[in-house]
## 1
Amino acid sequence: MGGTKRTAFWLGMALVIAVAPFLGMEAYTVQIFTLAGIYATVALGLSLVLGNAGQISLGQAAFFGIGAYVTAQLMLKAGLPFILALPVGGFLAGLVGIGLGYLALRFQGHYLAMVTLCFGLIMQILFVQVPALTGGAAGITDIPSPQIFGSAVENGPASWCKTFHLAWFVFLATAWLLSNLLSLQTGRSLAALRDNPIAAESLGLDVSRYKVHAFAISAVLAGLAGGVYCVHTHYIGPEIFGVGASLEFLIMVVVGGLGRPMGAVAGALLFAVVPEFMRTYEEYRLLFFSIVLMAVVLVAPEGIWGLIAHAYRLVTKRRSHGEGALG
């Protein structure tokens, strides 16, 4: 995608996000799509680690939780405004991500998966066992609505539109920055690391640095999403940030399309919208998505967005051939 087309694409996305809540959607529908925007930011970070750097992580929900707890407590106990608490939550999640990234340097493949899985389990236990910071098993309630640029976002229909914009513009800003980053030498280096780490290292790439950076950026994005989540739901608890959530984020990324920002959107929308039609069968939710995952891996290895992009290329190609024949 050229520079002009890329700019037009992101501007078009911003316009869609700006007007979407005012296109006749009910308040509950706006809330569901807000949740999709939050999930998309988490999935975007995991897509960087898994799809671009080739490193598996099963602890993404832990970073999501760190961002949520830090943001909530800074607002409740330190009295910080949301606009300051949010980046602090993302920053602290990023510091933990750096630590996990350095630990991950010693492992590969399924060993790395086990390490990140254990990290997620440890963090969930800490979320329960340190009630002074996390509220324990009861979690944290009555998280205040944020103040954005001096304007309070109160509870009610108007607030749902504002949190919708907040969630999706956080995704849009981080996706735009990440897309530009990956279009530079960093993207090519990560692709080399993913495809053949030994060859990448032999060519002089600092493989360790890129791995740690990928984990750190992924953790920051999850932490930012966690901060938005806590002010969207006004409640957080340890059950939200467990291993099951990490598996769901993993499925989102694979089903949506690895290494693609819009793949994160496709996977997040699937996970946020479809469960609303499955409330009667809530206990089968993970089973359903596991079946979807297997089907996508077999039929469309590049994910839903890869399938859409492939169909678009075919249509464009046929149209150009048709215009050439007419000419």
## 2
Amino acid sequence: MAEVATQYEEIPEPDISHLVTEDDEPVDNLYSERQQALLADALNVSWNPDREFLTMVNVGLFYSLQSPPYVPDFLLSMDVKAPPDVWEKKHRSYFIWQYGKRPDLVVEVVSNIDRHEERKIEGYAQIGIPYYVIHDPEHRLSERTLRAFELHGSRYVELVKPWFVDLEIGLALWKGEYRGIEESWLRWCDRQGTPLLTGAERADQESERADQERERADQERERADQERERAYQERERAALLEAKLRELGIDPESV
């Protein structure tokens, strides 16, 4: 009688030796590099969803052993964490079978018309990724800078507002400086539209708060010094008055 496999037996891992996880191609341009970094930066520094999450930038998303990967500019996957050994080949990219789930959201930053971000929408839908975002800062695909989609069944439906209910987080366009470049950026935000802080912004905020605390402490010390000076002057005036009264033959205690 053949032995029945138990749930405790390890399932052999697929052979991925033929898969190319890195092609050593550079990112498209400086803006794209900064934008990708910004998306990961703010989430990893300022987001606290009470769940494990993993962000990846410009990393292969493998969904099949026979098909080439997608390479989203940014991906977010909930309830997973970074592997302990990032040098193992099975940890160098996002293998869906390795993490046990699909990413929850991908972002594509349009930098040229040959990348076909709109065509990827069908592929991401087939994989089953719940949210898909297109950031088109140069309007290469349409006149709209930001478009966000949610998967309904096997098709994506465009969201009226880029708020992702299942993740309780949103995206918004923001004009300002990030790492030395003044531009319009795609940023994570809370329900009120307030951007999540980057590491540098949080450090600046903490530094400003520390400066304010030091200023308040200095003001308190100055007020205390003034109070001590007033008390000293009052004692001096009282002593002079007492001496004057005694010169006049008046007992200060009787006044």
